[in-house]
Amino acid sequence: MENKPEEKKDIAKEKKAEDKGAKEIKTKLLLSTLPEHALSNFQAEIKKRGIKEANLNNLILEALEQVPENWWTEKVESLTPLEYKVKEALTNPQMREKLETLLKDKEQDLSQNSQA
To answer: 102 and 82: one domain?
Structure first.
């Protein structure tokens, strides 16, 4: 049994994707640190000792590996704007219901306070 041309294209695409593997995400950084910062001290010490083979990119990646996974998650949460959280809540039926109840209760409170 022979593959149809469409199936051959799909198989070729899958094989190509497998061959590539996971793509790296490249990020360029321009860091400014105070002279007493650990990275500044590290760089000064490397220079002082005449270490030429230090790949700063790899060393910073190694340092970043020391950051716990939950730090990244907590940082994303702390930086996420309220608008995004509300939008996401609206896509979840349970959260949408809770949000709707919260807003109705708040509306009733405001209505009662304005009548008093």
So the answer is: yes
What is the number of structural domains in the chain? 2
Residue 22 is given by DSSP the state S
Q: What is the pLDDT of residues 13-34, one digit of tens each?
A: 666 656 667 788 888 889 999 9
What is the reported pTM? 0.58
Phi-psi region of 31 (alpha: psi -120 to 50; beta: other; left: phi over 0): beta
Q: Are 73 and 83 in contact (CB under 8 A)?
A: no
Crossing angle between the packed helical segments 93-115 and 82-91, to the nearest 10 degrees: 120
Domain with 95, as residue range(s), is: 77-116
Choose among 81, 89, 43: nearest CA to 63.
43
